[in-house]
Amino acid sequence: MSETTKKLVRRREVSQSINQYGVFPVTVSGVRRLSEHFVRVSLTGRSLHHATSAISDGTGQVYDAYIKLLVPPAHASGPTMIELDDTWRQRWMAQPVEDRGHMRTYTVQNSRMVPAVGMDETPLLGMFPAAEADLSVLERPLPIGVQPEIDIDFVLHQDDAGQLGPAADWAASAQVGQQVSFLAPLRGSSLWSSWNPAPSHNLLMLTDETAAPATLSILRTLPAHASGTVLCEVPGQGDNLAVLSDVQEVTRRLPQLTVKFLPREPNSERGERLAHELHSVFNLTETETYHYTDTTAADEVVWGLAEENAETYVFIAGESSVIKTLRRMCVNEAGIAKENISFMGYWKCGRAES
Ligand SMILES: Cc1cc2nc3c(=O)[nH]c(=O)nc-3n(C[C@H](O)[C@H](O)[C@H](O)COP(=O)(O)OP(=O)(O)OC[C@H]3O[C@@H](n4cnc5c(N)ncnc54)[C@H](O)[C@@H]3O)c2cc1C
FAD-binding FR-type domain spans which residues (predicted)? Predict the structure, then answer.
């Protein structure tokens, strides 16, 4: 670690905590419009050598790992850097949004090693590991000539007034060479991830477009004997990410797994196609017409993990009220035990991520 970095890094007491995280400055190294509703932004930087191994090893085995993107305010000339200590969150939230920008959660859809082409020559500068971080994890020789790169697939969603959210807006106009930053676990710390299936690998995955990147990334990690059904509802016909990614290749390796991307019909409601397909997977009769209803309170956390060793593992992620409905259907209609279900409300209709 350089002397400059040592000065920048505030070290408090070293703890045995395995949840250490830092702010990683990175450079946009690629922008690819995948479809009408998705843009893929690639981010690279030598700082990523110090991220949790799933990211820094660049093997693409990232599961549903997520990071916290620090969307810079409009006038910012560089990435948002936050000095992390016990009170950083309160301090950051107390600032006017025009000054601090926004923090948004995104999945690392893929990771790889790329040649270190000098895109980002600021390895650790300005990276502040959290208070109590054990900085010894950073003290290792870095691989020469290569650096990690990750992909984030952003949904370009609009609100009723046709406005993109701040993160979607940032992604829609991202340029190669631009700098940004995100929070992620440090090397040696656990991945921020919810994927926890039993070894049986008999799966049911129900996801929407925001969890399409997690779906792709998880498919990449599955063993050849994985079986079950993966259903992902997306906004439009062109949004079949499996066609647009390397996942077709991946699914060829998984003959016992049915993977379907379900474009929303012009008149269908959010979650309707998932609910319909779920009924046909279990040969259930649809007793009532599906209607999307917002049943999630503003401060409600729709999140729970399946117990280990579940026989059939169910992973439901996407819009919170849809997730609640699908979970209820799985339990009440399909007879799946609650303990077998991981459910994650990734976002709430009509409400910005705080
Ligand atoms: C663990 C995790 C992983 C995630 N991974 C991804 C990912 O890989 N890709 C991704 O695109 N999103 C992902 N999300 C969801 C993403 O964090 C939210 O969609 C977030 O609200 C987007 O921020 P924003 O600034 O664009 O919009 P916000 O400012 O948060 O919201 C503005 C408005 O847009 C609405 N809105 C937000 N998202 C959508 C949407 N998708 N469709 C329609 N309306 C929407 C909100 O309800 C609100 O009314 C993930 C969330 C979690 C918790």
Answer: 21-192
Residues 258 and 167 in one domain: no
State mean pLDDT over 275-301: 92
The CA–CA distances, whole Å, from 275 to 3, 60, 203, 205, 214 equal 57, 31, 17, 12, 20
pLDDT tens column, 41-70: 999 998 899 999 999 999 999 999 999 999
When divided into structural domains, the chain yields a total of 2
155 CB less than 6 Å from ligand 1? Answer: yes
The verdict on the CB of residue 166 being under 6 Å from ligand 1 is: yes
Find residue 113's DSSP bridge partners: 148
In a domain, 50, yes or no: yes
Stated as kind and residue range, the H or E segment containing 170 is: helix 166-172
Q: Is 84 exposed, middle or buried (0-12, 13-18, 19+ CB in 10 A)?
A: buried
- The reply to whether 156 and 225 lie within a common domain is no
Q: Are strands 257-263 and 102-107 parallel, antiparallel or unpaired?
A: unpaired
Indicate the residue among 151, 185, 219 that finishes a domain: 185
Whether 154 is in the pocket of ligand 1, judged by its Cβ within 6 Å, is yes
Q: Is residue 190 a part of any domain in this protein?
A: no
Domain holding 334: CATH number? 3.40.50.80
Contact in structure between 205 and 195 (CB atoms under 8 Å): no
Q: Which range of residues forms the domain containing residue 313? A: 202-347
The residue among 101, 45, 102 whose CA lies nearest residue 76 is: 101
Distance CA 71, CA 68 (A): 9
